[in-house]
Structures are given as C-alpha cells and as structure tokens.
Amino acid sequence: MEVRRWGEDRIAELEPLWRDLHGHHAELEEVPPVRPFGDSWAHRQEQYHGWLRSGEGVLFVAEDDDGKPVGYLMLTVGGAPATWEVGGTAAEVETLAVLEGARSDGVGTALMDAAVEEAKSAGAGAVGVGVVHSNAAAIRFYERAGFKTFYLQMLRI
C-alpha cells in the first residue's frame, strides 16, 4: 500500500469509497438520517473540487499494490478559530474513508500520518476531525492517533 496525493481530476474515482462510508454512516443510530447516496456524493464532490481549486484542500489516497484506491483522506488547511489558541493556522480532516475490507490493515493510520505531516508543514497548530458520537470504532481510531475530545456539536431539527 502506498499513500499518494491525488488531484481534482481523480475525484470521481473515490465514489466506491464514499459509497462504503455512506453505508457505514447509514447504519449508525443518528438523527437526522443520511441523505440519499446520489445527493450525498454530488454534494461531497462539489466540496472536494472547491477545496482543491482554492488550494485549501489536500487529497491523500491509499492505493493497494495494483494501484486501486482502498482509502482516502481530504484535509483542509486554513485560518484558526477565533476563540481557541492554536496559532494562526488550523487543519481539518474533512473525510477519512477506508474500504471495509481494508480496515485494520494500517490504511487509516498511513493516511492520518500523511495528513498530520502536511498540516505541520503548513504551520497548523491543531488538526481537528468531526466524528459521530456513536461511532465507537472511529473514536477509538482517532484517540489512538492522538486526538482528544474537545468540542460537542448539537443539532436541533
């Protein structure tokens, strides 16, 4: 497995990984429910294109020995929050997706390592990630990667 940077021209190739992540999210007991896959993928692709075009985003893709993508991570780097002292730049893991069959093989860790190194190189004083509160496996993964619970976001729908 090798982690590479991909450009905007290859976003469409991530659809199977987004589909896998979307299905995983649909299994979580959350409110609100997930969007239909087509709407979700169209919305996310638009965001990816925007982040990469603006130079704010970096797309890391883990490829297997045959060059097939088995995981990806979209990182954005920009201004830091006004309230919290983390320096002038902060990064956010917007998406981390690993195919179900490749989980526990080090793919997520390799992607996260690449993202954290990129964030440091960009001068980010902190790297954030959002995770659904009931996604225990993801929370454990992020804790092992050095993340700590910081912010609770609540929804009223």
Top keywords for this entry?
4 helices; alpha+beta; 35% helix; Aminopeptidase; 157 residues
How large is the share of residues in beta strands? 15-25%
The ordered string of helix (H) and strand (E) elements is EHHEEEHEH
CATH superfamily annotation: Gcn5-related N-acetyltransferase (GNAT)
The radius of gyration is 15 Å
Shape-level CATH architecture: 3-Layer(aba) Sandwich
Quick one: overall form?
globular
The number of helical runs is 4
Highest CATH level, the class: Alpha Beta
| Category by helix and strand content | alpha+beta
Average residue pLDDT? 94
**Termini, distance in Å?**
42 Å
Assembly state (oligomeric)? single chain
Q: How many domain regions?
A: 1
Give the tally of β-strands. Answer: 5
Helix content: 25-40%
Low-pLDDT parts are none
Which fold does the CATH topology refer to? Aminopeptidase
Report the major sheet: 5 strands, mixed
Lateral strand order in the biggest sheet: 1-2-3-4-5
